[in-house]
Amino acid sequence: MMLSAWRTRVRRCTSLAAKRAKMVPDDGKTVADFIRPRAAGSGPVPDVAMSPTLTFNADRDPIAVPETRSFFIETYGCQMNVSDSEIVEAVLINSGFKRADSVTAADVVLINTCSIRDNAEEKVWSRLYELRALRGRRRGTAVAVLGCMAERLKERLLERDQLVNVVVGPDAYRDLPRLLSVARDGTSAVNVLLSLDETYADIAPVRPASNRVSAFVSIMRGCNNLCSYCIVPYTRGRERSRNADSIISEIQDLSREGFKEVTLLGQNVNSYNDVTGADRGTFTIKDFNLSNPGFSQKTKRASRMGIRFPELLRRCAEVDPEIRIRFTSPHPKDFPLELLQVVAEYPNVCKALHIPAQSGSTSVLERMKRDYSREAYDDLIATVRDKIPGCSLTSDFISGFCGETEEDHHMTLDLIRKTGYTHAFMFAYSQREKTHAHQYLLDDVPDDVKSRRLREVTETHHDLARSNAMRNVGSTQVVLVEGDSKRSSEFLAGRSDSNVKVVFPKIELHGDCDVSKSVPRPGEYVVVNIDSATQRSMVGTPVRRTSLQAVGNDLSMASQFQLNFRPILG
């Protein structure tokens, strides 16, 4: 259909197939329409452009929920999807929907999806076919697909065996109540418009009552990096940062509610840049040390600099010294010395950094468009070790990327051995449509070679992680109690500063200044001496209840409160 036919403000009920209608908001553009054509001779990196946010206008389009309907959300993928599901729940509850206790009791089933790899999408397709049987038994049940698959595969979702009623992209969750109302008469409803400014900053997420200890706080959305293998910029759109004041306000609310851990979320969390304040945005890029030597920035930076991530992290840490602060997922190019200094300075900023390498080969990193060399990454790790002693590191690795040779693969194994990661997310390369790699590179590593290399990467990491874990026996950890151990109600479980699970007996303990004893409760900190350790967890003897401020004031003891993960050289 020609783009010139899509000029009206809202186009409804256009036929997708003979027996099926769909509703698309605004001009009905697909993700492809948000990729500007490249001029002759231009580089291969696409420039993603987006339409402004579509908001529902009750005067223009008065569709209301006619009666109370129930919903159930299933979430697949990353922490950002978990956070988005909490936003979706808030939107629906504020519009008169109620949460169902199970899929079978829901009028609307919402599937929040991931598109990062083929197997992630296959899980969703399998689930949608299972839900088709439910819809056959319970007439009137609607199924909505949210998130990255909705953005990437909207037409296929509606056409394939009539599995879905509603398709909603990550920037259109405010529109869900209206779309669900439209879909009640059998009409399909779609809104996958990407936004230049949607951050959902004004929506208070509905967090699960079962977890009042840890919370995710989304600080930005989208990504400008355009790594050649990654679909995220096409499903999540351009970077836009939340107003810093709204983030601080949300953490203050969490503090009042008794939460003890906050994870700051973003597709590229450490490129955060808030320019919303009247007194911000007056600096140029040259006024900021955005990265370290050896890292480059090929994609366009924001022309104005406001509150950057190191300053935001500092403000978050100062809200409540008893709340641990974590952040994910960062990019290695956005770790300036200022950021490392904030992590080192504040006791409640966890000394655990995710620094995704993806490969240990400079040539592979160049094809991935990661904007750094192996040498630059090694230098960053050395700087982290120097500025934050004992800091644990985690990473991501892709095996079998386009053009990867055996030599490239062995460079990745070498990086894993030399760095000594606490944990790593490891996958075989899965080509995604619309990415630079899909358009310009050859997926030339055979599947059996990918599998073999992934197995070697996994085994190398696990062997080293097990060896490093044993070094923690005899160490002292500060553990944030989450609740009873899943294996026994006679034990408590929590997480160390380095985000490793720690299990210990549920017994009464003194506090730092308490003469009386009590059993530690979820949300309290406990000093634990580690007796045994595996790659994934540790078991120890509890010593006393404590606080982060008490730990921070005891410098001699604080030096022990780190996982002792050290690199293996040679």
UniProtKB/TrEMBL annotation:
Pfam families, A to Z: Radical_SAM, TRAM, UPF0004
Family annotation (SUPFAM superfamilies): Radical SAM enzymes (SSF102114)
GO molecular-function terms, A-Z: 4 iron, 4 sulfur cluster binding; metal ion binding; tRNA-2-methylthio-N(6)-dimethylallyladenosine(37) synthase activity
The name this protein goes by in its record: CDK5RAP1-like protein
Residue ranges the record marks as coiled coil: none
Residue ranges occupied by any Radical SAM core domain in the UniProt entry: 209-467
Domain MTTase N-terminal: 69-185
Domain of life: Eukaryota
Keyword Membrane: no
Family according to the record: Belongs to the methylthiotransferase family. MiaB subfamily.
InterPro entries with a match to the protein in the record: Elp3/MiaA/NifB-like_rSAM, Methylthiotransferase, Methylthiotransferase_CS, Methylthiotransferase_N, Methylthiotransferase_N_sf, MiaB_methiolase, rSAM, rSAM_horseshoe
NCBIfam families referenced in this protein's UniProt entry, alphabetically: miaB-methiolase, MiaB/RimO family radical SAM methylthiotransferase
Cofactor(s) listed: [4Fe-4S] cluster
Domain TRAM: 470-544
Keywords tagged on the record: 4Fe-4S, Iron, Iron-sulfur, Metal-binding, Mitochondrion, S-adenosyl-L-methionine
Entries under PROSITE patterns matching the protein: MTTASE_N, MTTASE_RADICAL, RADICAL_SAM, TRAM
GO CC terms of this entry: cytosol; mitochondrion
